[in-house]
Amino acid sequence: MNSKLIDGKAIAAEIKKEIAKEVAAMIDADVKAPHLAAVIVGEDAASQTYVASKEKACHSVGITSSVYRLPASTSEKELLDLVRFLNHDPEIDGFIVQLPLPGHIDADKVIEAIDPLKDVDGFHPRNLGRMLIGLPAFLPATPYGIVEMLKRSKVDVAGKHVVVLGRSNIVGTPLSVMLSRKAEGANATVTLCHSHTQNLADITRQADVLIAAIGKSRFVTADMVKDGAVVVDVGIHRIDDPSTEKGYHIAGDVDFDQVIKKASKITPVPGGVGPMTIVSLLQNTLQAARHAAKK
Predict the structure, then answer these.
(1) Structurally, how many domains does the chain consist of?
(2) For a tag site, which of 34, 109, 265, 273 has the least CB within 10 Å?
(3) pTM listed for this prediction
(4) What are the tens digits of pLDDT across the range 146-156?
């Protein structure tokens, strides 16, 4: 493997071994295995793939997995009723409602209805607020995974300039907070950029660590990257490609083939951030199960 690559798949496998060991110890102590549920509404292909990967990851570490598959015609009330049911089901330690949701359902209303103690996606305002002021909370899975990946890859961001492209509530905004706070694996100086940022390339070229979560295929080009920068690619896009057996190929938010020539380290797509997101969800589920066991 290229020495520049940050192998998220390998790091996730290492963390899975740690989780599996703790789950086995819980079962040996007559404590039930952690139980993660997922709710998916409609037939979004990317969501189906993610939930399938989550199920497989759960099984690999001994975590119980349940999936509630609802048709796209499901009403907002029906989904909220299911959320309330899962909130009160003692068998479920944590659950996620897979995004995106159909247009007729208010995603914010659904997220706010989730019990914060079961919100293993880390999207509830209570968890985000606690994270903001440094209190224990479920951290959003992708930012959590990125911070852990950087730490385990010996990328020390303390005192460094980190530029985050994208200000979503799922990745960019919470990640900028996590990397800037006073904590292990953090203490960075963070610039958060978005679609209205002027002179964007001038800013990205200052980055010691550049994190692309802007949602546009191959948006980050080599001329936007400083020599020796660490580049983390959060994006994942299915690009039609008749020349391949599957009829498509996967690309990220970074023009990988060109940027790798300038970067000191870079995450591939796939095999970089994606596996870390799933393993972080498992870590949050384990945390939820620990809390439930103490009740």
Answers:
(1) 2
(2) 109
(3) 0.95
(4) 999 999 999 99
